[in-house]
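Take the subject:
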Amino acid sequence: MVAVNMGTLYYVLDHVYGALLHRTRISPPFFSRGWGGTKLELLEKMINQLFPEIEGQNWPPALVQPVWKTVWESKTACLREGVFQTPCDEVLLNALPPESHTARVAFLAPKSCQPQRMACVVHLAGTGDHTFERRLRLGGPLLKENIATMVLESPFYGRRRPLQQHGAKLLCVSDLLLLGRATIEEARSLLHWLDYEAGFGKMGVCGLSMGGVHAAMVGSLHPTPIATFPFLSPHSAVVAFCEGVLKHATAWEALREDLAMQKVALTIEEVRERMRDVLSLTDVTRFPIPKNPNAVIHVAATDDGYIPRHSVLELQKAWPGSEVRWVSGGHVSSFLLHNGEFRRAIVDGLNRLQWKEPPS
């Protein structure tokens, strides 16, 4: 009985947190400026065209060359920050706000051994994670396991945030697809850099919530086996914005009015169906199974008000061999209390990869 009451408490906590954050209108809701017009049409077309190419896996990562500066260095570890131009093609680059053209990354690495005997995990941002600090705290204790941490600042976040945008509340639906597509391109390029330039022996990608969706996509699309860690994440953004707490943070009326200006008169329920249709492009179950599904470990919460259980299990079913680990709690409490479980999953997933053969 106590367990049931605690589960209810965790679930309620997610909704209370969501109500305080999203329903009080301290900041504008998501997508207050509508769908994004021609940008949304462009992205829908681009992403739909991706899928035949994805099946063939002939989408090599672009090579990037970050420019590094050392933030601090000790006897055992070094933290560097780097910048590079986003490797997105010209069409995507023109769609991105100018502030998002330059990518920023933090790189925390142990100094105890050569890169070919170390692993590195690229950490992607969850909704509202504008800085490097939280993800560096998650990765920091892994230094003693010879696991480095690379943290990517997302487009539309941190120093890459457009001037008109308040906090994490993206202005248009097209921004969400742009953020995801650019993040995937940048993360794959960083993994390519870690492999070919830095010479790491194993690599992985992880993220919480929205970052977990992007991590799953990156793990699916990367041309070589990497460990993949979707933490507290759904199989699709449809779940987050149409089923979970974030549906209360979405500007449904503004989206309806935007369509009305285009001479399309819809009810709010029809607007939600249109949103489901657009966000179905983010459904990771449509993506190929990663090269090593045994090195995919999902960590999900038992009483998550943002991510329902069925969504986690849909991705596991689509990727046979992947593992789901359950932690007690909701989205917010697990985010705060279960870093140890996230780290354990990272260590275990990397242990399921073979070491890369050193160059002869």
